[in-house]
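Sat 14:20. Reprocessing the chain from the morning session after the first attempt stalled halfway. Input below, unchanged.
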Amino acid sequence: MNFARPILILVAALLAVFAETQLNLPERLLAVRIHLLPAIVVFAALRSGLGMLTLTAAIGGLWLDSLSANPLGVSAIPLILAGVLMRHFDSMLLRDLPYAQFMLGAGAAAMLFFVSLGILLSVHLEPVIGWATLWQGAVSSLGTGALTPLVFFVLDRIDRALTYQPAPESSFRQDREIKRGRT
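Finished this time. C-alpha cells:
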C-alpha cells in the first residue's frame, strides 16, 4: 500500500490549520477568515476513500478547534458531514473541473460556517450574530471556493511527484510471434 497520499493529505491539513491561525492578512483586509481546511477536505473526499476523508476531517477539525475559540469538536462535525455528502454523490461530481472544485469548496466552507454556528447556538453559547455574520459567511465561502482549485493543483502535483505512475499499457501482446522473411 502506498502511504504517500494519506500522509500528503494529513500534512496539508496541518499546514492549512497553521496557515489559518497564523497568517491573518486576509482577515485584516476583509475582516473575514478564509478557511483552507474545507478545501483539503474536498480534496480528500474526491481523491481518497471514506476512511481517509473521515480521518482528515476529524483530525483537521480538532486541530482547528484547539487553536481557535471554538469548543473542541465543533468544526469536525460539519467537515465530516460535507465530506460524506461529497462521497455519497461522488459519481455525479465533475471532480477535475475548476468551477466544480470552486463550488464544492464554497459549499464545504458554507457548511462549516453555518453548521458550526448552529452547533454553537444549540449548546447555548452566545456567538455575536448580526448582519456582519452573513458577510463573513459569504466572503469566507467564496474565498475558500476560490482557493480550492489552487489546492487541487498543488496537491495533485505533489501527489504525482511522490507516487508511482504506472506505465501505459502497450497495444502489442507479449506472446505475439513475429515472423520474418517471405511466406
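Residues 4-162 form a domain with the Arp2/3 complex 21 kDa subunit ARPC3 fold (CATH 1.10.1760).
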